[in-house]
Design a protein that fits this description.
The protein is an alpha/beta fold. The chain has twelve helices and nine strands.
Length: 309
């Protein structure tokens, strides 16, 4: 399997075996780091551009540290500080960036900008979050599920909240590709679109099933994993009041957790808005896996970069 030079804009397009390779290498890198053993300097002599159009804590820092640990040189670029902020096109920028650096990590508002960047740059591009997908998060979440549950095949993952969010879309895609089951519980307006559900049905791996269940108490019955994300994603601030009101009944709190099996774990990509989509009692409680998810970003992204860049 050779992933060198491929763009990683979403998990679709990568086979289940390729995704498993990324997860296996991430696990190896994680245990090597825990044993204070180095990993091969996969990025020695390479420069990696990290282009950000939106704020970030976890993604920015874990990519920066990851490039450093792999022996490369990370260059943080704020979109607004480049000529992009003064109207230079994304495609001209991609063409230029790609002739200086060996890889690009980019967080953008519009997923279509990421596609233009990838098409115009000679260097491969990794999606660090767009309005539609967050694949590095999804694979880190799959690693966390594997560690906590011992498998992904047949595991029941229930996403509660904004079913059209980038995090939900990538989670659904990756879990299905790896043979797990996904349930999305949202008000009708925030359920995944019919078009996306059709696409998901087309990519589901061995036996993976997708269910849409409006009632969150019904949805979490039988769940192995309950996942939520903010109600107001970056770029959707003008809809904040409407979203908070529609998504209010979808809070992950101890009442909802009582409807789930006792061994169900809780996941959140972070940042969390405590008291909105999730309560402090749950996120800080014994069933929370959120800190492991955040840690796994580092290992999974190092694995992806080592294979692609
Ligand atoms: N989960 C995640 O991508 O966090 P940041 O926005 O802090 O990078
Ligand atoms: N859905 C959230 C994820 C943040 C990591 C957002 O796009 O703001």
């Amino acid at each position: 399997m050779d992933l060198i030079g491929r763009d990683f804009l979403r998990t679709k397009g990568f086979s289940a075996d390729e995704l498993k390779l990324i997860l296996d290498r991430a696990s190896e890198m994680k245990s090597a780091l825990r044993r204070r053993m180095g990993t091969p300097p996969y990025l020695e002599g390479k420069s990696i551009a990290m282009l950000f159009q939106k704020p970030s804590t976890r993604t920015r820092i874990s990519f920066d540290v990851g490039v450093y640990q792999l022996g490369g040189h990370p260059i943080y670029l704020n979109w607004a500080d480049l000529q992009l902020g003064r109207g230079e096109t994304v495609s001209d920028t991609g063409r230029i960036l790609g002739c200086y650096v060996d890889g690009i990590v980019a967080r953008v508002f519009k997923h279509s900008d990421l596609e233009v960047l990838a098409d115009s740059s000679p260097a491969p591009v990794i999606n660090a979050l767009s309005d539609e997908f967050h694949p590095c998060q999804a694979l880190s979440d799959c690693l966390t599920i594997l560690e906590r549950k011992g498998r992904i095949e047949g595991v029941s993952v229930v996403f509660v909240g904004d079913g059209r969010s980038n995090v939900c879309q990538s989670l659904a895609e990756a879990v299905l590709q790896l043979g797990g089951n996904i349930t999305v519980s949202s008000p009708a307006k925030y359920m995944p679109t019919e078009e996306f559900v059709k696409e998901l049905r087309g990519i589901a791996g061995k036996g993976g099933k997708i269910r849409l269940v409006e009632d969150p108490f019904e949805a979490v019955k039988g769940a192995d994993v309950i996942y939520t994300d903010v109600w107001v994603s970056m770029g959707f601030e003008s809809e904040a009041a409407e979203r908070r009101s529609a998504l209010g009944p979808y809070q992950v709190n101890s009442g909802l957790m009582r409807s789930a099996p006792p061994d169900a774990i809780v996941m959140h990509c972070l940042p969390a808005h405590r008291g909105e989509e999730i309560t402090s009692e749950v996120i800080d409680g014994p069933r929370s896996a959120v800190w492991e998810q955040a840690e796994n970003r580092l290992h999974v992204q190092k694995s992806i970069m080592s294979l692609i860049f």
